[in-house]
């Protein structure tokens, strides 16, 4: 005889759901005639609807899903969402054949966004960022990672991170903030990248951390960014402060960034088009998530594909993110990224969904709290106007949430 289910703490039951729990064990963690019970902000029970006890506590709300798809809230684990200015002219330049490095060396690229972002007030930045974030919220995103990296000095980096935190409070979503001071060399340190790295380690990072603004530390390791030796100095400082690290690695060239990230037990290494076998093996050993950014790949019309099959063989968890930024991935949609990850990189629709739920949570160090529909996790749930989890990646713009619960609240 099965132990009776304790329903005493239940506050809401969603029943008759096509429940894609994204938990391990079966494709999509699917329970076709599923039910999920909440106790306040947390998930209390998950199972088949026929196992839901008939007698529920007084006041427990029953939500009839009518066999609609229910998934965890979507997680965008890599964005540069807080910026000012625009870079649309670069798009046209690039279409005419001008390269990323050429644009960067001519003072365009990241540094033009840095100038505009430095000039903007915290209030102006928040207004701009709220409008962008609202696009993600409307398509079922309940957690967003936001990086700094357009300030490149202490005051402006902290300003961006404060805006990111304020945005999370305003929209009632989870925001994870990542310090990306090592994004580019600011004009006042032109030609002196090592001195700028000193400034990152001695001033910017400690100040941002002291204000409680840093959930993780990121850097840009590439031939147009920083060398792996420079990145390592940032990682050493981050570890000293007890902070997790991530890395923009192997986007345009192979600097062995992923292996470096793995040595520092990085939560994730992101981009990875030029990742090699050694890098994949290192990531597998450290359980570092591979965050793929198909939007940047598409926008820059890249042709070198990330080594998807090697990642699969070595069981490296794969996440997908928007990389939302004004210059190389101005796509304010995570659902679009799911589709691009399938069409451009050959991911399955299941890999695409896990990439914006379970594996994205892991990439943010949140795997115990978010990313799947399992007892004990935060009840961030989306009820879709769809019947099957494959639909989310198989289209773009046709499927919208019918309802979103954030920490159990509608
Ligand atoms: Zn990025």
Q: Give the distance, in angstroms, between the N- and C-terminal Cα atoms.
A: 36 Å
Please state the CA-atom Rg, rounded to the nearest Å: 21 Å
Helix content: 25-40%
Sheet-strand content, in percent, reads 15-25%
Q: What is the β-strand count?
A: 15
Shape descriptor reads globular
Number of helices: 15
Distinct small molecules bound, one entry per kind:
zinc ion
3D architecture notes:
The chain is of the alpha/beta class. The chain is 36% helix and 21% strand. It has 15 helices and 15 strands. The strands form 2 sheets. An 8-stranded parallel beta sheet has the order 6-7-8-9-10-11-12-13. Strands 1, 2, 3, 4, 5, 14 and 15 form a 7-stranded mixed beta sheet that branches. The chain is globular. The model has no long low-confidence stretch (mean pLDDT 96). The chain binds zinc ion. Residues 78, 80, 248, 323 line the site of zinc ion (ZN).
Topology:
Elements: E1 12-20, E2 30-39, E3 42-48, E4 61-64, E5 69-72, E6 74-76, H1 88-95, H2 100-105, H3 110-119, H4 122-138, E7 141-147, H5 154-171, E8 174-182, H6 193-210, E9 216-221, H7 228-240, E10 244-249, H8 257-263, E11 268-271, H9 277-286, E12 289-292, H10 294-299, H11 308-313, E13 318-320, H12 334-345, H13 349-355, H14 358-363, E14 381-384, H15 391-394, E15 401-405
Parallel strand pairs: 1-4, 1-5, 6-7, 7-8, 8-9, 9-10, 10-11, 11-12, 12-13
Antiparallel strand pairs: 1-2, 2-3, 5-14, 14-15
Helix pairs in contact: 4-5, 5-6, 6-7, 8-9, 12-13
């Amino acid at each position: 005889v099965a132990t009776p289910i304790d329903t005493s703490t239940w506050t809401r039951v969603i029943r008759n759901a096509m429940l894609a729990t994204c938990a391990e064990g079966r494709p999509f963690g699917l329970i076709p005639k599923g039910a999920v019970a909440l106790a306040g902000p947390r998930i209390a029970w998950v199972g088949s609807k026929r196992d839901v006890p008939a007698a529920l506590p007084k006041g427990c709300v029953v939500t009839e899903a009518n066999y609609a798809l229910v998934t965890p809230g979507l997680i965008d684990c890599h964005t540069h969402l807080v910026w000012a200015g625009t870079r649309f002219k670069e798009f046209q330049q690039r279409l005419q054949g001008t390269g990323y490095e050429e644009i960067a060396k001519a003072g365009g690229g990241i540094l033009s966004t840095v100038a505009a972002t430095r000039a903007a007030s915290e209030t102006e930045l928040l207004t701009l960022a709220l409008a962008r974030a609202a696009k993600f919220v409307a398509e079922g995103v309940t957690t967003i990672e936001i990086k700094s990296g357009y300030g490149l000095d202490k005051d402006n980096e902290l300003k961006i991170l404060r805006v990111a935190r304020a945005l999370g409070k305003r929209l009632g979503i989870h925001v994870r903030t990542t310090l990306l001071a090592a994004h580019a060399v600011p004009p006042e340190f032109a030609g002196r990248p090592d001195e700028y790295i000193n400034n990152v380690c001695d001033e910017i990072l400690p100040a941002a951390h002291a204000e409680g603004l840093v959930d993780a530390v990121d850097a840009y390791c590439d031939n147009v960014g920083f060398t792996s030796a420079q990145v390592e100095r940032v990682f050493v400082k981050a570890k000293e402060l007890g902070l997790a690290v991530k890395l923009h690695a192997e986007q345009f060239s192979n600097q062995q960034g992923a292996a470096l990230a793995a040595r520092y037990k990085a939560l994730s290494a992101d981009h990875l088009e030029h990742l090699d076998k050694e890098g994949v093996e290192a990531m597998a050993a450290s359980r570092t998530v591979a965050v793929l950014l198909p939007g940047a790949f598409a926008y820059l019309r890249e042709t070198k594909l990330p080594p998807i099959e090697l990642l699969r063989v070595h069981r490296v968890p794969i996440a997908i993110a928007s990389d939302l930024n004004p210059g190389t991935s101005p796509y304010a949609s995570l659902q679009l990224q799911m589709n691009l990850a399938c069409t451009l990189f050959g991911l399955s629709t299941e890999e695409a969904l896990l990439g914006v739920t379970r594996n994205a949570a892991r990439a943010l160090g949140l795997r115990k709290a978010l990313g799947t529909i399992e007892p004990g996790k935060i009840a961030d749930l989306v009820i879709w106007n769809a019947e099957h989890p494959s639909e989310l990646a198989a289209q773009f713009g046709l499927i919208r949430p019918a309802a979103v619960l954030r920490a159990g609240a509608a």
